[in-house]
Every structure is written in structure tokens, then in C-alpha cells.
């Protein structure tokens, strides 16, 4: 299928981008352009994809290719229903919680969110919950189809040799950059206030109020909060260590003292244990991340920076020992390109803007002074950057770009697997495309 050439990269519509569309006045009224069993594809979804490319300043694939990728996505949802492929509510609610927290950090308060979107938090969450469920279900089906696909070095070399020499991609400057991150600390006053509130909730439960009612009212875990703090059954090792240690010390129906974890402060109630599983409720409170104290992290990173500059301590070792960013800590602090997962990142507009402008002022081999940093989940932190290496622009070759070429080869094999799946699965469901898009030949899966 010629329009499936880049399907693997196009299947999922970004929920973050969908959030931004919710806040805008729609230019195009929704119109059904395709139906896949009980799932409808709207014209606004196709336009959203095109707009996403425009905003990212990347060339958009042909409209028919985007249409086909969206139809395949709807087909995955329909087949997931038929094949009983589901995503746990807990995972959906966890993702929703993360999205809402990011939005609250972005807008400053829930009141500002309501004003920006013109919708109540409840209705906004319902819309996002539906979009997130579809996204995670589609991803799970995609993993089911392509999960066993692997590539060998021989296949990578064959793929590279098939590229005409005059068509080799010219790669931009690439850099290798590391970071050491230290989280901002909760002030004593903030910590005392959160402890006081949670201990007050504990006392209220002991005096007869229901734990579930207080969780619904006060818990800042938006996912479990609406369920009365219910986290369901968790396997040992699934929760963060402080939470699990506290939960497993208790007997059924007991409550913990205040438990501090990387997510905030918890009041936990154990309901029951069942073999290697346990069932708990919790009330979570978080400090105001925008008011945290960065004095100690700044001082600490300054000291680490001096040791590295004096060659008393290697950056990679310092990152593994001291960084509080779990995503990069084990890799010696090295950042990776989100698409290729390579430590060689293009030095262009695709890079995080704060990182790009900082690196642009640094020399290779140097370490930055501590600077403010906002984590993906909105927490305040400080970090130092290590500008390790810069690779000059060049035509792709096996020696320097094996990982990138391996990813291309793997994606091509995954596309092929999805094409074969689509050719078979399209016969299992009803698919209708409106006449306006008939020329796209979405259903002619034998075209290459």
C-alpha cells in the first residue's frame, strides 16, 4: 500500500495536540468521512493531523496517506473490541492524571484551564479520557501486531545498500549532551502543612467519616480520587518502595501515618492482601511545585560541576550517582532523541528549545552552570548540562549512523507487518469511505 509508507510513525494522533484543539474555535465543522464498524473518522481529525505538521514546521505526508493511517487506527480500535484487547482503567486514569497535571502547570490553575477551554474540568476530562483510551488501545494493538518484529545487522546493511547513492539522506549537525538533575525541595513549611492536613484526614476517619469520601474531596491523584482513592489490587514491586513498604506493614482496614514518596505525600488504607497482591486506598497531596526551594539543588550541582571540571569526578559517574532524573541516570546522564532513541540528537528545531539555545552558547567539552529546569510532569528542578560531542553534517553511513539506520529498517518491517495485518483485518469489519476521498483507494491493499 503506497500510502502506508510511513504508517508506523503516523498511527497515533497526539493527545497533547488534541488538548490544544479543544481550546480553539473550530474552523471546520465535524463531518464524518469514514466509518469503521462502530468507529467514525471525522474530517476535523484529518485536519488536526495536517495542522499538527504545520505547527511543527515539518512537511506533511499526502492527505490520502494521513487518511489511510487514521483509518488503520480506527480499524485497530474495532479489532481490539473483537479480539478483547483492552487497556486497564487504572492506566487510562494515570495518563489522564498526568495530562491534567501538565495542563494545570501550564495554565497555573484549574480556573485558568476552564477559561481557556470554555468547558468544565469534568467535561474536559471526559473528552481527554476518551481520546487517551483510544490512543492507548491503538498502541496496544500496534504492539500486538509488531511486537515480535526484530531486525538483524545483516538486514540493516541490506537496507542501506538498497538506498541509491545519490539519495542518501544528508543529516544535520548532531550533538551528544548529558544532564545531571536535582529536584527542588519541599520547604519545611510546605511539608508541615501537608503532614498536618493528612493527619487531620486520618483523625476524621477515626472519628467516623469515610476514607473514600475524603479521598474524593481532597486527593490530588485525579485518577484514584474519583474512585474514593481506590488503587485496585497491586502486585508486589508495582508501587514505589515507600508506599509499598507502608502498605504491607499494616493489617486490613488499618491506616498508615503520612508516607512520603517521589509523587508527594500519602495517607494509605489497606483493604486486603491476596497472595502476592494487595488492595489499598490512598489520599495524595502534592506540594506547590512552583514554590519549591532550589537553593540546595543549586549549591549541590555547583559542587559537582567543580569536581567534574577539575577531573576529580567523571560526568557519567556523577550522573549515575547523583542525578535524580531516572530516565537518564542509568545512561550516565546522556539525553536521547525521542524518535530514534539515539544519544546523537539533531541540533535543530526538533530539539527542546531551552536545551537548543543553551547548547548554542556552549563549547564542546564544557559544563553549564546550574539552570532552572521543568520536568515532564511539571516539577521544578535544577540541572547542569555537559556538551560532550558535536558531529558535523554528513551523508548517512553505516559506521556513524547504524542506530538510526537500524530504526529505519525496523520501522519499515513494522510497516510491512501492519500492511499485511490490514489486508486481512479489513475483511473482518465494515469500512466505508465517503465519495470525497474515494480517489485515495484506502481499501486497495495490494498497491505498493
TrEMBL record:
Q: Which InterPro entries match?
A: OMP_Chaperone_SurA, PPIase_dom_sf, PPIase_PpiC, PPIase_PpiC_CS, SurA_N, Trigger_fact/SurA_dom_sf
Residues in PpiC domain copies: 172-272, 275-371
Origin: domain of life:
Bacteria
Instruction: Enumerate the SUPFAM superfamilies for this protein.
Output: FKBP-like, Triger factor/SurA peptide-binding domain-like
Gene Ontology terms for molecular function: peptidyl-prolyl cis-trans isomerase activity
The answer on whether this UniProt entry bears the keyword Isomerase reads yes
Query: What are the entry keywords?
Result: Chaperone, Isomerase, Periplasm, Rotamase, Signal
Which positions make up the signal peptide?
1-23
Q: What is this protein called?
A: Periplasmic chaperone for outer membrane proteins SurA
